[in-house]
Amino acid sequence: EMEPGNIIKKFKETFANNNFDILKVENVGPSVGRDLRSKAIKALLLSFVCMMIYISFRFEFRFAFGGILALVHDVLVTIAVLAMTNREISTSVIAALLTIVGYSINDTIVIFDRIRENMKILRKVSFNDLVNISINETLSRTIFTSFTVFEVLLALYFLGGEVINDFAFTMLVGCISGTYSTIFIAVPVLVEFQSSRRAKK
């Protein structure tokens, strides 16, 4: 057991000819874990709010809503995989989760930007077809970018050592979920918003 008395005894046995002093003893209890979890949730919520404001300002609220749903999906999927693999939610994992949010929204913004551009050019095309065209135009970029990032993360996971292992694993999961969530969550939500808007008219 990692009790101060046991540690002192072990030191005296191992280093019998060396004098040493215990200057300070600190215990890390469950309250630290609760504080870390609370700050992590606040950081994620703040990032979601900032992303919502940014996308709403740059595009429209319907774009922002779909993008945020995709981000929430990415974070939840990543946390679920971490729970299933019994990995600790450490500071490096929290940093990875925030990095995933930034990575995922970047891919979403690229597709949203192409949709907005095509809305000005392809005026006679239905919105559903316009979205499909936009996804096809950006699909190769998405695949190549994600594959490149995935290769780097694989190298970090297998060769980066124990210190960065949890970070690399979290990023691997987030990279996969962030790649498909834009196409299968953010964009369909945008299409649904457009359909409901037309139905009201």
Task: Write a structural description.
- This protein has 201 residues and is an all-alpha fold.
- 82% of the residues lie in helices and 0% in strands.
- Helix 4 packs antiparallel against helix 5 (127-159) and helix 5 (127-159) packs antiparallel against helix 6 (165-200).
- The longest helix has 36 residues, at 165-200.
- It is elongated, with a radius of gyration of 24 Å.
- The model has no long low-confidence stretch (mean pLDDT 87).
User: What is the tally of beta strands?
Assistant: 0
* H and E string: HHHHHH
Q: Describe the biggest sheet?
A: none
How much helix is in the residues?
Answer: over 70%
Strand content: under 5%
Number of helices: 6
Can you tell me the overall shape?
A: elongated
Can you give the mean pLDDT? 87
**Coarse structural class:** mainly alpha
Indicate the radius of gyration in whole angstroms: 24 Å
N/C terminus separation:
70 Å
Low-confidence stretches: none
